[in-house]
Amino acid sequence: MNKRILPVGLVQQGCSEHRESNLETSFAGVREAARRGAKLVLLQELHTGVYFCQTEDTARFDQAETIPGPSSEALGQLARELGIVIVGSLFERRAPGLYHNTAVVLDSDGRLAGKYRKMHIPDDPGFYEKFYFTPGDLGFEPVDTSIGRLGVLVCWDQWYPEAARLMALAGAELLLYPTAIGWDPRDDEAEKTRQRDAWIISQRAHAVANGLPVLACNRTGFEPDPSEKGPGIQFWGSSFVAGPQGEFLAQAPMDQETVLVTEVDLDRSEDVRRIWPFLRDRRIESYGDLLKRYRD
User: Fold this and answer.
1) How many domains does the chain have?
2) 140 neighbors 175 (Cβ within 8 angstroms)
3) Residue 3 — very low, low, confident or very high, per pLDDT cuts 50/70/90?
4) I need a surface site. Which of 7, 15, 147, 276 has the fewest CB within 10 A?
5) Which intervals hold domain CN hydrolase (predicted)?
């Protein structure tokens, strides 16, 4: 029996205010990953521009686009040309005054195989996403592609075990997290280490708890606060691929643009779940209180 080995690529990049330049970098990274054998390439969150959510600015809504639209169509053309699956991350204009943070999945024939609208929306200093994004309404539904069933989630979703579990219960074969996360430059080194470690641990834990590979693609570089009122964000890169026991298969540096390519054994999930049968041992009849905000 032949193993299902899937070569995957992640494009970790810095971004500027120049959309075309950002797309050129993304596309160059996708081409490099494909040249190195990748059949699935994941791009970081909102890779067509800077992380504009540091401030609340109505002019930023002009950057949103429809799906299908210019960026998704360009990604589809590239996917068809290279014969690979591409997962991108876009600022979606759904209707006037209605916008989403949306991941798109382009299959190897160039078609839009599906999309996922970010469900968990943060609202914290430097991350004012609730001003821009309506919470997703497509649920936690994997996207079927020519290379497998993809459980695509976005950034803040990565802290929620419920999201990963629901994707796993729907048959996802991989979990993918396009991300934009970094430090407040004023934090001391110990706090920075704790934050980055927590980010990595959380997603590796999703791999372990669900017996699935995880791909997390983060941006890198410093982006100043456009209002000049805040300290800006130092994105910590560190994009990685983990196997179904949380083991690192590949990891990018914190401070460099990187095209990360490695192989994922899709059949390993079956082997791992046979010895760690977490899905079998779930006590689903006792979990009703998960539907409550808090147990007072």
Assistant:
1) 1
2) no
3) confident
4) 276
5) 6-266
Q: How far apart are the first and last CA of the chain?
A: 53
Examine the pLDDT at 217 and tell me if it is beyond 90.
yes
Q: Is it the case that residue 2 has pLDDT exceeding 90?
A: no
**Gap between the Cα atoms of 215 and 248, Å rounded:** 10
CA 252 to chain centre: 15
Is 296 within a domain?
A: no
The reply to whether 269 falls in a domain is: yes
What gap in Å lies between CA 226 and CA 77, rounded to an integer?
Answer: 33
In a domain, 25, yes or no: yes
Name the token pair of 57.
């600015």
Residue 115 catalytic?
no
Name 296's Cβ contacts closer than 8 Å, sequence gap at least 6.
none
- Considering Cα of 149, then 152, then 157, then 158, what sign does the dihedral take? positive
| pLDDT higher than 60, residue 76 | yes
Q: What are 98-128's pLDDT values in tens digits?
A: 999 999 999 999 999 999 999 999 999 999 9
Supply the Cα-derived Rg of the chain in whole angstroms.
Answer: 18
| Catalytic hit among 39, 92, 118, 129 | 118
pTM value?
A: 0.97
For the domain that residue 214 is a member of, what is the CATH number? 3.60.110.10
90, part of any domain: yes
Question: Is 45 an active-site residue?
Answer: yes
The whole domain housing 280 covers: 5-291
Catalytic residue among 39, 115, 129, 155: 155
Catalytic residue among 39, 45, 53, 115: 45
Q: Please state the φ and ψ torsions of residue 148, each to the nearest 5 degrees.
A: 140, 180
